[in-house]
């Protein structure tokens, strides 16, 4: 999940107040600026061919599928072997991008199909691992191992300005200078530090260099998300955000503002408050297997980027990746995991597994929802569910009387699927996720669970006005295929899907599902919803038409050769993009991103 920073009130937060503007000017003075737009105009290469007409189903028939549980209409005409071309195309989306490919400039009109809506104002921001090898050393074999590259597309007056730049973390600078890998991330198996056993036992596990704390300090690659809030533009992976210059994406560094000084992860929410303002909510989770605890820290920032709330809670060891925020609670989905003893004490010290592979499925307990109070006077709660499942990315949630509704993407078997996605072939377990709703009873502690749609899905998004409120429309990346010879196997994430619930009743099970299928060799990344205007951005909690009165924007990878940005009118979803922008540089399959209602990363004028 990645919330879009585009609600009307969030737009004012992005432009911020005088203090934020003053801070931004000071930050800009610290970094060089690249202003020679004309000398490096961004023109697009030829696009990759596609097997099917964009917007058509795998068999050539037109989407959408409609009706209750339309997700059952997956194309199941192909066996696992026949799905291999789709997996091959998907895997090709992770090829390395060298830093020499950094560029900027307007996207040429010849590289745009259709027309960019003139009302569209703001900046698409994307982040993800992009640099996977140095001097022929492909040590970063795992997708999340790569160095982070931020990509921006700034929209104004029907034009688009492209820019991409790598996040200059301390390790990136040192490794570029050395021409080789020096430090592992939490996803690195083949450790560049030698001897491996010494560093992984004495240093990582015992903490001989840190007062025997046993808290591993791993490489930061700044590769998982990027957001613009309260005058600060930050890239973040885990715990250490890096401030970026909003003019040119140059790295200013960690600690340049309250937001970049606060440790947090790539997942956040933007909440509308009762006084009409908006708040950015961040979180940081730290597992300590030595004392079997997890510590979660939640911070809230006002529209000027000032930290106005800081709360910390401790509970039994658990891995949590994302959160839902409601009026009263920070909600974590504590899925049943435990320490993987063999990986932790045998395989990790030998360099056979990464630190991230030190957890495994725990079948001895149920999943639990942990509800932590946002305010004084609210009671902390723990509610379990009989539905045994796992989840990374959540859709949305809200409180309604004594009920708390929690929508997420779930799958029935634990997997570190970020290890699978690069080498996926469907022959080993591939997470077949469903769009699932949990209804928690805050009085009795009961929990009901049911699926809203069973298309294998990931990377959900909702309208900014709907965050933490009753809502009707959700947007996701989904698979279009299911293997004919194995009901546990689906094709890779391929298309964009709009799931529309009939109403906002917590127990509503009637949905309409529409798809945009981009073609057999084109693969959609995480989408973001952009409201059309302040007047049509929807009333908070209305579940009204404002939730789909806008555009869905996302990147599409053309089988590892080129990358596009597509813009879909959500009121006419099944018709496909109103504009397709062929980017001047290849962008690998990314992780997360956001949309800033502020025009940044582009030129100040048309010159």
From TrEMBL:
Family: Belongs to the carotenoid oxygenase family.
Species of origin: Prasinoderma singulare
Cofactor binding description: Binds 1 Fe(2+) ion per subunit.
A GO molecular-function annotation: metal ion binding
CC cofactor: Fe(2+)
Source species taxonomy: Eukaryota, Viridiplantae, Prasinodermophyta, Prasinodermophyceae, Prasinodermales
KW Phosphoprotein (keyword) present: no
Protein residues bound to Fe cation: 267, 321, 393, 592
Span list, region Disordered: 1-75
Keyword annotations: Iron, Metal-binding
Compositional bias of kind Low complexity: 1-20, 41-51
Keyword Disulfide bond: no
GO-annotated biological processes: carotene catabolic process
Protein name: Carotenoid oxygenase
